[in-house]
């Protein structure tokens, strides 16, 4: 195994030639994804909150028109509407948490590749030195 200090370099990729450049590119991409997810989550949260705030007066008006504004049916309808809103928010929050977990796993993979390439470089250099030392010892004998 000959020592090749450039085996982890990719000259065909101008933005990821070295392992550290590939790591930086990956981390920048995952940061951008995470910010986009958080932005989308906040927009969805705002939109769902506005929709719920519009829905409550509509429900109250419908019950008032039917003469049920003091009935338990109105309270049940409001509770079901609130439950649907909370369920939507919980589902959206869970989806965002899962997506952020996937991004964290992707980052861990990028760090693992970077560390693995560094370890491989060090191991190759040590192996090359050991082979050279063995050849020198053999030549001296």
Short key terms for the protein model shown above:
82% helix, mainly alpha, 141 residues, 2 helices
Task: Give an overview of the whole structure.
The chain is mainly alpha-helical. The protein has one domain (19-140). Helices cover 82% and strands 0% of the residues. α1 runs antiparallel to α2 (72-140). The chain starts with 18 loop residues before the first helix and ends with a helix. The mean pLDDT is 85.
- Determine the fraction of residues in helical runs and give it as a percent range: over 70%
Strand-pairing-aware structural class: mainly alpha
Number of strands: 0
- Strand content range: under 5%
Profile the largest sheet.
none
Tally of domains:
1
Could you give the order of the helices and strands? HH
DSSP summary: helix tally = 2
Cα distance spanning the termini: 23 Å
Which blocks of ≥5 consecutive residues have pLDDT under 50? none
**3D shape:** rod-shaped
Q: Gyration radius, to the nearest Å?
A: 30 Å
Average pLDDT works out at: 85
Briefly characterize the structure.
This protein has 141 residues and is an all-alpha fold.
Write the SSE topology:
Layout: H1 19-65, H2 72-140
């Amino acid at each position: 195994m000959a020592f090749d200090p450039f085996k982890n370099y990719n000259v065909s990729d101008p933005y990821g030639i070295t392992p550290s450049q590939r790591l930086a590119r990956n981390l920048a991409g995952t940061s951008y994804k995470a910010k986009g997810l958080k932005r989308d989550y906040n927009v969805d949260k705002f939109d769902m909150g506005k929709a719920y705030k519009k829905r409550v007066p509509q429900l109250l008006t419908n019950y008032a028109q039917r003469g049920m504004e003091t009935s338990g049916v109105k309270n049940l309808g409001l509770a079901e509407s609130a439950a649907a809103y909370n369920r939507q928010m919980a589902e959206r929050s869970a989806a965002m948490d899962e997506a952020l977990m996937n991004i964290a796993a992707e980052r861990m993979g990028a760090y693992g590749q970077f560390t693995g390439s560094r370890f491989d470089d060090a191991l190759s250099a040590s192996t090359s030195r050991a082979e050279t030392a063995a050849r020198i010892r053999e030549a001296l004998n």
